[in-house]
Amino acid sequence: MGRTKPLVRQSIRRGNPLLLLLFPVVIAVGAVLVALLLLPAAAGFSLGVNHVNARLTELGDAFKRVPSFPERSTIFAADGRTVLATVYLDENREIVHLDEVSEIARKSVLAIEDHAFYEHGALNLPSILRALIANVAAGQVVQGGSTITQQLVKNAVIGDTSQTVERKLQELAMAIRVEQKYTKDQILELYMNEVYLGNGVYGIGTASEYYFQKPASKLNLSQSATLAGMIQAPEDYNPIDRPKAAVIRRNLVLQRLAELEWFDQARIDKVSASPIVLPKNAGHVSKKANPFFVTYIVRQILNNVDHEFDSFGKNINQRRRTLFQGGLSITTTLDPKWQRDAQAVASQPWAVSVGNPGYQYKPDEAIVSIDNSSGAIRTMLSGRNYQKDQLDLAVATRQSGSAFKPFTLAAAFQEGIPPGQVYDSKTPFCSPLWISEDNCVNNAESGTGGYMNLWEATADSVNVVFAQLILQVGAQKVVDTAHSMGITSPLPAVGSLTLGTADVSPLEMASGFQTLANDGKHCKPFAVAKVSDATGILYKHHLQCEQVIEPDIAHLVTAMLQGVVSHGTGTRANIGRPVAGKTGTSQEYSNVWFVGYTPQVSTAVWVGFPGNPYPLSNYFGQSVFGGTLAAPIWHDYMARIMAGMPVEYFPAPPAPATGKIPNVLGEQAADAEKILAEANFTAVINKVPSLEPAGTVVAQKPAGGTTAELGLLVTLDVSNGHAPSAVVPDVRGMKLDNAKALLIKEGFKVEVLTKEVADPEKIGRVYTQSVPPGTKIDMGETITIVVWIEKPP
Questions:
Q1: pLDDT at position 489, please?
Q2: Hey, is 633 helix, strand or coil?
Q3: For residue 471, what is the enclosing H or E element?
């Protein structure tokens, strides 16, 4: 294809009569217009700006500001270097730096839109005149005289395309100020990321991926010219819907490149003769999803529930503008290495089984870690493959099972219940106060059926003991304690709460256990450390920590949870350093947990079916528990992140409180239990036959006055109101004193009768007894014995 001559020159040579008549008028009008409005700005910035400002004063102060263009915000990890994501004002825009756009694409845009961009200021007067002449010659608008800077201002700042004097003046003033504030490269980069290129696509970066499935840095000459040509009328020159028009427009851009001698004419002709080749999947942007942590941060800032992010704006629209258009640098709390470790562990085969790949649903997992001293969220893994599945698993709520029991312990200890308190672990435990279909609760993982204290019940996760405990403490007190420790979800004040039937999130559980690890001081979890914009610091997080339970209580619960790992249900979480934690298995085995902590870090691990509460055994072919599935995942992840950290130890729990056991002999059983309970001892009643009235304590062990650990089990023998029975011994032939002693020892009363006898060998011995030997009768019955006495002479 030959070189295209300028339109005006061709029209003049053809002798267009209208153009010949209007040409002097155009020149005159253009000269006057430039002199009155535009020339001062081009003649010198100082004079031009002063002149324009004077003109704009009449139009209001709104025209005097120096515009700031929407700029993408960058979200960094805690190290301030690792980029997690860049966010912009809309989803369908991939922001690229100028050096990420091929030189061919840059030249193509400049050639067709503003070839002298790097040579002129905010205005290009020769271009204005050429456009005016060309438009008059064509009888329609065929050329525009606006510079790239003016177009940027019009599209990105003003957003008004009306042809009014006010709008043109506003555009002019802002364009001048933009040229003063930004470099040419910055303006071109802003422009190329701002232009609309059809099909809801903005920016050269997104358009390159959308139409040609490649980054902007890889655009060739044909592709570059195609996209550059679309800027004037994106939908008209869309290569997908209007391929013929797109080719014509592309070739116009190519010829312009040749006219400017930016490319060899032979190469231009070769490309012009070829079609626009689109890949099969043209029209689709395979946009890489932001990490879930970024989604979480965006949600936190926009929702601004606690007014923490008021500096972003008073309402959601203002905060959205600041976040997506403010050019912010957002430093988060995420540790990139820990996040990689979590992903690596989550990608491992399941610990208990390879599972059933043919099963309809696949289980997934979430891992959340929090720094104990500050509440900073260091890891937030939401599923094995968030990029593909886009599942919210780290903040979504689910039943926590027995992992919730530590909150019941904390509430109990705040109420003064000692850890040595004993309860019957026999299953089931039934009570009219227990709200369920049958008013009963059963053990799921363990329970011997004997009496056990809270240390043992915690290590073995005995449900019936915790059922009795929450009824003793009061469910509302457990709700209040859990909320103070970091659980934010609504919790029902019912007994089953202690078994984890309420829905909570991995983030909440990690936060709640952080309170225990931090000496009872809860620090509100946070993900954003600081935010800065072009003017400086916009936001900086201030720790929000509060002492919510006493340190001694936190240390006591921690010591009990260490037992879970050392010899209880969570032994698979043992990483060879001090660890405290709790397993959890929800109803029907649909969710399994391990939530645990070292002195430095608290981590929650959840495994289950996203959105479907099906038993995990359906997939694994066997029953799984928090201790068998979640604990190994916790172990592998924590072993990685703790490597290299110094080994730290938990504070020792407070020494067991002791007291003197009251003497309750002779008391009625109910009164005795109350006396012992007020002294923080647990009474166990053993009904025994006794001559004492029914309900009377006839014996206790340990004895009254003994000093013992509070909560100790005290066994009380209580009369059942029935005399005990005994076998009547044979006392015939025995001396009287010996016979009486034996019968009294066996619990009988003795009545003595006499009978005379002449035989001296028989005198003083028992002749007979009223109840035959070997007969079993009630103790306390009277047995009459007959004793020989000497017959008088």
A1: 98
A2: helix
A3: helix 463-473
What b-and-e string marks burial along 101-124, b requiring 16 or more CB atoms within 10 Å of the CB? bbebbbbbbbbbbbbebeebbbbb
What is the structure's pLDDT at 137? 64
SS3 610: coil
What angle (nearest 5°) sits at the alpha carbon of residue 560, between those of residues 555 and 563?
Answer: 130
* 702 prior amide bond cis, ω within 30: yes
d(CA 332, CA 380): 12
Q: Where are the beta strands (DSSP E) in 23-79?
A: 73-76
Give the Cα separation of 465 and 456 in Å (integer): 10
Selection from 64, 198, 178 nearest residue 117 by Cα: 178
What count of other Cβ atoms lies within 10 Å of the Cβ of residue 709?
Answer: 16
Write b or e for each residue in 385-424: b if 16 or more Cβ atoms lie within 10 A of its Cβ, otherwise e. ebeeeebbbbbbebbbbbbbbbbbbbbbbbeebbbbbbbe
| Short-list 75, 68, 67, 69, CA closest to 328 | 75
Handedness of CA 533, 195, 135, 185 (dihedral sign): positive
Integer Cα distance of 455 and 564 in angstroms: 9
HEC string for 665-712: CCCEHHHHHHHHHHCCCEEEEEEECCCCCCCEEEEEECCCCCEEECCC
Q: Helix, strand, or coil here: 129?
A: helix
pLDDT given at position 128: 67
Q: CA 681, 686, 692, 696 torsion: positive or negative? A: positive
Q: Would you state the structure tokens that stand for residue 91, as one six-digit string?
A: 């989803």
Q: 3-state secondary structure string, 166-193? A: HHHHHHHHHHHHHHHHCCHHHHHHHHHH
**Residue in 464, 177, 173, 202 with CA at minimum distance from that of residue 325:** 202
Distance CA 23, CA 129 (A): 11
Cα 425 off chain centre by: 35
Radius of gyration, CA atoms only, the chain:
44
Contact 463, 402 (CB under 8 A): yes
For residue 284, the model assigns a pLDDT of 80
Q: Which amino acid does the sequence have at 143? A: Q
> Does the bond joining 646 to the residue before it have cis omega, within 30 degrees of 0?
no
The letter for the amino acid at 659 is G
Positions of E strands within 560-676: 580-585, 591-597, 601-608, 658-660
Q: Which of 487, 505, 645 is nearest to 576 (CA)?
A: 645
Residue partners of 110: CB distance under 8 A and separation at least 6: 117, 148, 188
This prediction's pTM: 0.73
Question: What are the structure tokens assigned to 685, written together?
Answer: 């009643």
Helix%, strand%, coil% for the chain, nearest 5: 40, 20, 40
Query: 366 has which bridge partners?
Result: 382, 606
Low-confidence ranges of the chain (pLDDT < 50): 1-49, 51-66, 141-142, 446-447
Q: Which residue has the tokens 């689109």?
A: 278
Check if the beta carbon of residue 249 is closer than 8 Å to that of residue 237: yes
Sign of the dihedral through C-alpha 445, 451, 453, 455: negative
Q: Is the sign of the CA dihedral 188, 191, 197, 202 positive or negative?
A: positive
Residue-level pLDDT at 36:
40
Q: Do strands 658-660 and 697-701 pair parallel, antiparallel, or not at all (unpaired)?
A: unpaired
Measure the CA–CA gap between 593 and 616, rounded to whole angstroms: 12
Half-sphere exposure of residue 11: CA atoms within 13 angstroms, side-chain side: 19
CA proximity to 598, closest of 537, 645, 658: 645
The position carrying tokens 């003769």 is 273
